Amino acid sequence: MANIASTTASAGTEVTARALREAVFAGLITLGLFVLFVGLKTDQNIRNELILTQRWGLLAIFVIIAMVGRFLIVAYVQPRLVQRKAAKAAAEDVAKEESFFSRNFSKIAIAALILYPPVILALTGVQGSLKWVDNFGIQILIYVMLAWGLNIVVGLAGLLDLGYVAFYAVGAYSYALLSTYLGLSFWVLLPVAGLLAACWGVVLGFPVLRLRGDYLAIVTLAFGEIIRLVLINWTEVTKGTFGVSGIAKATLFGIKFDASKDGFAAMMGLPISSAYYKIFLFYLILGLALLTAFVTIRLRRMPIGRAWEALREDEIACRSLGINTVTTKLTAFATGAMFGGFAGSFFAVRQGFVSPESFIFLESAVILAIVVLGGMGSLTGIAIAAVVMIGGTEILRELSFLKMIFGPNFTPELYRMLIFGLAMVVVMVWKPRGFVGSREPTAFLRERRAVSGSFTKEGHG
Amino acid sequence: MEYFVQQLVNGLTLGSIYGMIAIGYTMVYGIIGMINFAHGDIFMLGGFAALIVFLLLTSFIAGVPVVLALLLMIIVAMLAASLWNWTIERVAYRPLRGSFRLAPLITAIGMSIVLSNFVQVTQGPRNKPIPPLVSSVYDIFDIAVSLKQIIIIIITAILLSSFWYIVNKTPLGRAQRATEQDRKMAALLGVDVDRTISVTFIMGAALAAVAGTMYLMYYGVVVFTDGFVPGVKAFTAAVLGGIGSLPGAVLGGLMIGLIESLWSAYFTIDYKDVATFSILAIVLIFKPSGILGRPEVEKV
Amino acid sequence: MAIDTMTSTMTKDPILKVEHLSMRFGGLMAINDFSFEAYRGDITALIGPNGAGKTTVFNCITGFYKPTMGMITMKQKSGQEFLLERLPDFEITKHAKVARTFQNIRMFSGLTVLENLLVAQHNKLMLASGYTILGLLGFPAYRQASREAIDVARHWLERASLIDRADDPAGDLPYGAQRRLEIARAMCTGPELLCLDEPAAGLNPRESLALNELLQNIRRDTGTSILLIEHDMSVVMEISDHVVVLEYGQKISDGNPDFVKNDPRVIAAYLGVEDEEVEEVIEQIEEIEGEQGGTKQ
């Protein structure tokens, strides 16, 4: 007995000693990383010359946080995790009955989304609802739709596309330019924008068919940049960096959302407010996103969808089964691009203004990150990832109470992308397969069982 | 003719910088098969480190010789960038090694966002101009060659030859090549794979930091977004030359530098990046593994 | 010497005719002026030592390589002929009805076993779904076709004794089952000629026996001709009607299993002996075979 106690005690001191060592190491690394960038700050003085400001206190705080954090992790969190893992392994594998909530997750989510605007309206009033419907609802749904569109290319067909934003741009500019120059309505131009984007998908897809993996990635990235650069430089048509403004709004069966006599508010006898237009836009993007989901689910059960997934798993085997991989890849590009185009024209109608600034590489990266973080191929996972990542960064705009802690000069927006990037890294390391790693089979003989993520491949192209 | 040669010199200078960054991409890709998207931002970080060292030197010690200042800037920038890249590999890439291929790509993009925003937050979002370090211009056969350009080309040549030596002639280089060929087998034969990969990241970062210092010296300004465009160009260079091939990275870098300066000189400067990316696409259509890349054999 | 085998095959109808096939990789002549015929309804085996070029021949037939020279003619039951060296790989399966498996198994490991077989019926289902458009709109014709496709898949799963694992991911199957699945998947494309690249590689004796049975059933019930590459002589000698031997890219023997088994050139190629010693080797082999025959009985 005494023997055991002494060994555990010595193990305890050993852990503490190791934790101390690692803490000192982490402190040194942090010091090395931050000494130049946190300890010193470059500022312009009145004569516009650079001078250095010293911030050694801040640097000390960083180092101390790193040391204490590392110590706690090594000394307490890691042993706890090891114990939990052991306990989990020892416990019997009990087949869990899926709860009502998780079985009907998508139905509940759709119902919640449909009820969202009226509930917000009731809770916050007409003007208060603007922020919640627009910044959270519409913003997140746009990304959900874009990520679902990209999911067809990356998640199903396994083709790594780093320039998806190009199709978003094509859709947005199609609507912006055609409505400005030809005066066509949103409902006419929505399918046109989708078709044009799909055509671009084929045009850009064709030359890159032979490329695989990272070569495909860089060429799609290059195409994304080419489209943006053309939008910037083709000033006669696109007005360059100034962008196209004053884009016509969408109408609901010909009813306009404005202050006129036959506008929506007047007809319904409601006070005039832009909130109604936002709510209309919310339902519009919700409908578009659900259309994307519906088509994706349908396509997965069709030969073309199965061929996409088979292409992701093994291209050579596909060819040996008589599948034309060229048209299969092109349809994946075109379908994905089409939804990007729809989302783009929605974006144009929502903002009333488009400029090349909105279609930078970072957007492609964010959309791709949502697809991968959600779990490639899983619509639910992707929607969750979009809510977490986009909703999370939008919430940072709201944290004005932090000003009281860090002083009035503190702007949470500044940290938005920093935290977004960190979250990408943390989530990926925590769940490399994304939130929903398993895949739903598209057909079954006896029972539908999800396929574990460890079997699915991620494609070579 | 003089104009053309002049543009050639400008293109070579720019190409040297791209080439040095491209080597980092190509080495990391060669050894673990991932696109290190954060590499461009490591380059930017190196530039900032050099900037801060420069300001330290000028504000605390008056009259430091330029050669010494440059040397110190390069050394500190190399150390800082290497430490950052080493840490990033440990924290964001190593836990994902051997898992899903796209996972490290996403963490790399995440790290790229983190790095540029970190510099924005800690150093401010404005352009950081410095007075010119070296300003002499020589007239060689009617062609104006600035000292800056000579320094950049010479430093690039020295670094590349020492790199070539390390990779081809030293045990470290052998370990790298072995790991590149077959990681599992190399580990079985006693190569410390983790260490080799770490060293590769450090080497890549060191070169990127030198490129960052040169960039700062050449243009006299650096800003937190500077990682992206040179990063993408250098990555394009690496792919153009054949990713995984060191001479390919240098060749690709020089080609892109030349395309850019010649296109801007003879056509319109607005579309120079479009030209670069179009040439990349065209080359890859005809040579899908880049100019010097090993053709990918499709094993059936 | 080979006269009786020649006359016996003269009457047969060739399904695949390979003429003067040559394939060069850089300076290496992998296949050199190789000709053979496979007959309808036969199981034809292509054997040879490692590196003889068997898989290269397969890749030329199935369109994964374009041969440097030569002509490959596939003649269907209907009499229609296809020049395989001119078709892109997927059309060889789609139109010429030649299906293949791979030496290192190529599963869609993240799809279920059933889905693997549905992917193989892609072209048929594509047509039924009106190239996706009608199917997307929910036309009943596609639903009918997809039910039929599942029936076809069920049939082949039963034949390959995989029916119990139909809803499991293909990557989860043991090796032998994956081999059978690959064959079932190839059969779902509805081929007239089935090309199998080392189907028995890595199988244990029991699995090997099950494989023989599966192949013989396929031939008997569907009339599909089979061309296979094999190392395992017990498989080759037991089930094949016709054996072609390849060494260093050239044909060294062609005939029925007994003929090939006793061809000194084949023995020399397999055992690697000098020409003078061949006779001696043959005697030894006969002795060994006699003993094995004794123990079998």
TrEMBL record, chain A:
UniProtKB keywords: Cell membrane, Membrane, Transmembrane, Transmembrane helix
UniProt keyword Endoplasmic reticulum present: no
High-affinity branched-chain amino acid transport system permease LivHM N-terminal domain ranges (all copies): 19-116
Transmembrane stretches, start-end: 23-40, 56-77, 108-130, 136-157, 164-182, 188-208, 215-234, 275-297, 330-353, 365-393, 414-430
Membrane topology designation: Multi-pass membrane protein
Annotated Pfam families: BPD_transp_2, DUF3382
Chief location: membrane
Compartment list: Cell membrane
Keyword Cell membrane: yes
InterPro entries tied to this protein: ABC_transp_permease, LivHM_N, LivM-like
NCBIfam families cross-referenced by the UniProt entry: PRK11301.1
Protein name: High-affinity branched-chain amino acid ABC transporter permease LivM
Record organism: Sinorhizobium psoraleae
